[in-house]
Structure formats: C-alpha cells, structure tokens
Amino acid sequence: xxxxxxxxxxxxxxxxxxxxxxxxxxxxxxxxxxxxxxxxxxxxxxxxxxxxxxxxxxxxxxxxxxxxxxxxxxxxxxxxxxxxxxxxxxxxxxxxxxxxxxxxxxxxxxxxxxxxxxxxxxxxxxxxxxxxxxxxxxxxxxxxxxxxxxxxxxxxxxxxxxxxxxxxxxxxxxxxxxxxxxxxxxxxxxxxxxxxxxxxxxxxxxxxxxxxxxxxxxxxxxxxxxxxxxxxxxxxxxxxxxxxxxxxxxxxxxxxxxxxxxxxxxxxxxxxxxxxxxxxxxxxxxxxxxxxxxxxxxxxxxxxxxxxxxxxxxxxxxxxxxxxxxxxxxxxxx
Length: 334
Known about the structure:
alpha/beta; Rossmann fold; Dihydrodipicolinate Reductase, domain 2; 2 domains; seven-stranded mixed beta sheet; five-stranded parallel beta sheet; 10 helices; 34% helix
C-alpha cells in the first residue's frame, strides 16, 4: 500500500464543470492536482492562478509529468484528440459529457483506451445526486410495481461561448442536456432507447443564436417504458440557479417525483442583486470525483463506461435526425 498521492491533471478546462471538479479534488485527502493545460492561453492562465494549479505549455508536457489520471474538460470536439493523447500514458481518464460529437469518435476513444489499458470513465454526475440514488433504490425494490412512463426535464441557462459554436460543441441544448437524463434512465433499468421522436427549436428562445436551444423528445425504452424529455436553455440570467433535472415516474402502484437539485434554501441578498437558491448538503460533482478517485485507487472498472457515454450521445444524435426528417428514428441496441 503506497502513501504517494494520486496525481491528477486537467487536460482542457473550457467546460464550466472543470471548476467544480477541481474544487472537489483539491479538497480530497491523498489527491494532488498536479497540473493543467488548455490551448486558450488567457483562460488557462486565469484558471491556473485561480486554483493554484501548475500550468503546462503543452498537452504532452502535462502528460510527461508523472500523472495517474487526467480529467478532460475541453470543448466537446476536442475530447477525442485529448483522450487519444492520454491513452496509455495514464491509468485512467475522466471525460466530460457528451463523450464526443460523433459515434465514430466515441468508438475510437473507447477502442484506444481499451487497447492501451487505460480506464475511460464518462462524467455523468447526476447518478450521484441523493434523490436519484434513492429513486433507483425504490425502483430496484419494485416499490412502483410495473413502470409505464417517465417524464423528464433538463432546463438550463444559455451558456454562450463555445457551447453555441457547432464545430466545437456538436450541438446545442439537446446534445448538452439529453445525455444526462438518458444516462440516468439507462442506469435505472439497464434498458436502451429503441426509438426517439423529437421537435427541436433552433434559436427559438434566443433569436440569432444559430444553434438549438430547446427540444422535446418522446422515446421508448427496450423494457417497454415510454418517456418524454423537455430540454432547453430556457432559464434567464435572473433565474435563481442554472436550471433543473427532474423525473416523474408512473407505475402501477403510484407516482414518484424526483428533483435532483432540491437541496437548497432561498437567499435574498442585495450583494447578489437577486434571490438565489443556495445549495446545501450533498454535492453530486464531488460524488463523481470521489467515485473516479476510488476507481484509480482500487483498480476496479469504471462505474460509468465509455459505452455508457456513447449510448447516451447516440440518443441525442437520433433526436437531431428525427427533427431533421420529421420522423421517429430507431436505434440499434449497443
């Protein structure tokens, strides 16, 4: 048993989640955030100074620093090249969702990590929300009996920046938010989405945005459950928090309603300029980081695999195809 700290680097920090991830890792005993790299020099310098994490001049320099693992929080289109660079040079990679922007890239990432003996985990923190964990426990115990439908939302604020650049993001609100919810549903039932129909709005809420900012999905799971998802960047800057992830599950014995972000108190502050919901208690991002570190320490398999990431992404891509053609799209099970 070694007393050496686990050395983790950040390879790309453009995604907003990088800040909560690094805070969680910095607070974790036995973990050292050994360095970071991002191609945006201004962003990299600010992030490095803010969190007192050493900044490297190139991705190769960071990967040569004796790391155990890296967290990839770059723009979506850069996930594949960063993962390919890191595969075989670190024990484990945590890649921000969506895994990539195309099935071909996702498969390439999975294949190179498998061949190199590097564990690939995908960042789906919603699995670590207490309400979601309890909901899974109830479903596993059969408390609802046969389940018929699941109605879901994932609303958020429009993030701007590279998120609205199709070349870098691969899609807008539908890709950004669908993958979270679909991953949770696959985790609940071990079932795949077999068919999806979608209506998607391009610049519907933000005129001139140039990318989708709202979508309504209807889908069927392989276990016969029918679902809907309302996904959007509909929350204005004045909203109390960034958004929501909610689930309503109807079964033969009743209905269960889950709100992943309901641990909050309302705070009206002149300093903030608006009323906010201040979160307390459990932190699902911290739960994700703890799970990733435990995987590195124990050598076990990832709890959220590259295949999980690809399956969730493919549902979002099928939604875009459905909206383009006006027809339901069938998905082949992975």
